[in-house]
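Below is one such protein, fold included:
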Amino acid sequence: MDIGANTTIDRASIGATRIAKGSKIDNLVQIGHNCKVGAYTVIAGCAGIAGSTTIGRHCMIGGAVGIAGHVTLADYVIVTAQSGVSKSLLKPGLYTSAFPAVEHAEWNKSAALLRNLDKLRDRIKALEAKVEAKVAGDASGKA
């Protein structure tokens, strides 16, 4: 196990904080109380892991990743740099959630669009169905 400079690993309030063999933790990482880090997991600099989080074996946590407390990451999970993990990731795989910085007003517009994307998709499908019905009706009327 390797632990970089200025990394903080909080002692457990109840139970234990555990870092398994073969793990590599970069500089300036915060690992909260009662966390469990699986064997051969690597955590890049400036990552923050809140308390009572369990990270599986052979995981890769990118730089500046934030992981909320009381979540679980399965074995072989990769979280790319600057991602935020707010819920458990129970399947192995690659996860990303980062957005580049933009002006606040632009971000608010983007966030509103993202929240309504499913409604917009449904409206487009309904309009497409109406257009297809109209085209089919026109085609049958001309024959």
Q: What stands out?
A: The radius of gyration is 23 Å. The chain is about 25% helix and 20% strand. The first helix runs from residue 104 to 115. The longest strand covers residues 77-79.
